[in-house]
Amino acid sequence: LVSRKKQKENTIVDLKGEAIGDGQQRLIMGPCAVESYEQVTAVAKAMKARGLKLLRGGAFKPRTSPYDFQGLGLEGLQILQRVAKEQDMVVISEIVSPSDIEMAVEYIDVIQIGARNMQNFELLKAAGSVNKPVLLKRGLSATIEEFIHAAEYIVSKGNSQIMLCERGIRTYEKATRNTLDISAVPILKQETHLPVLVDVTHSTGRRDLLLPTAKAAFAIGADAVMAEVHPDPAVALSDSAQQMDIPTFNTFIDELTASGLYK
Ligand code: PEP
Ligand code: MN
Most CB contacts within 10 A, which of 37, 106, 142, 227? Predict the structure, then answer.
């Protein structure tokens, strides 16, 4: 069902007037994790000042170590919902348990399925059974074919509002956290009719590479770029090394716009 052979026209995912896949390039930004109402509000205000509405933030954080911050859970979703209302934002947040999907749709606008859960088939089926857009990330070691099959799980349950997100894959290269597979973007656009996004934060793990990879993503045809922003990355409870602070976020937008690749 997600194949270009089945449907020639691009799928457009409408996020409260902010369409993804309609030819307009979008930025999805926000903190790695929801830490407090004040923290999310600070980022939302900075985004709003630049005309951005698509706010991300993790409430359920799938961390490599069980001793790392696991997220605020339901309280995090409640914070996102409150900020979305107050600042007129569209909120995107990762859900990790199939049993939380029904509850989550009451609070957020987009369900994110993270890299670690790309082949959690029960989660994919649960997300496919609700009427809410899904942002599906490519698995850490997933082939493009496996990624497309994961999307197919969601659509096969009736939900066709899916965005695919390339977020880097595991290779032997250690200079970046993952290896951004930039050619996955045109391949996914050829093979499927779904919008394709690039997450520059988790693919590189390096703040100095966010701008060049965002330019590359738009140059190669990505519909949107995702990057993390935190009011004070030094004290962030996760991904401290690669989140942008607010002045850096503003410079990022300025330079991306000046490059002519983001309009
Ligand atoms: C995230 O976007 O918050 C995240 C954890 O990313 P990924 O699933 O791509 O590692
Ligand atoms: Mn992160």
Answer: 227
CATH topology of domain 13-258: TIM Barrel (3.20.20)
Q: Is the separation of the CB atoms in 170 and 148 below 8 Å?
A: no
Q: Among all ligands shown, which has an atom nearest to the Cα of 165?
A: 1
Domain boundaries, the chain: 13-258
pLDDT recorded at residue 134: 98
Distance 70 CA to ligand 2 centre (A): 12
Strand partners, 169: 179
Q: Is residue 169 within 8 Å of residue 142, measured between CB atoms?
A: yes
With a Cβ cut-off of 6 Å, ligand 1 is lined by: 32, 58, 94, 114-116, 137, 167, 199, 202
Mutational pocket test of ligand 1: of 108, 137, 180, the residue with most ligand atoms within 8 Å of the beta carbon: 137
What CA–CA distances, in Å, run from 196 to 29, 31, 62, 187? 16, 21, 23, 10
**Interval 137-184: pLDDT, tens:** 999 999 999 999 999 999 999 999 999 999 999 999 999 999 999 999
How many angstroms separate the CA atoms of 161 and 203, rounded?
A: 24
pLDDT band at 136 (very low <50, low <70, confident <90, very high): very high
